[in-house]
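> call design_seq(struct)
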């Protein structure tokens, strides 16, 4: 298991809606704070001087290696 980069291992994410702040359970790791490296997840990052968006569906990548990395669920 590796730390869920969406919620940073917390199991929840803080979301901001207008002036309100709310807590939402993390849908990437299902509030576990960890994700399974053998499962496939939808991930994106930006690359190149144009910051073009790369889209990837597969096992979780290392967030440190990618610019503007996001993971958005299975
Ligand atoms: Zn999570």
């Amino acid at each position: 298991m590796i730390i869920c980069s969406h919620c940073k291992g917390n199991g929840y994410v803080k979301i901001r809606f207008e002036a309100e702040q709310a807590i939402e359970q993390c849908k990437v790791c299902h509030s576990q704070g960890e994700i399974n490296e053998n499962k496939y997840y939808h991930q994106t990052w930006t690359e190149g001087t144009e910051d073009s968006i790369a889209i990837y569906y597969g096992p979780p990548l290392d967030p440190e290696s990618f610019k503007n990395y996001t993971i958005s669920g299975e």
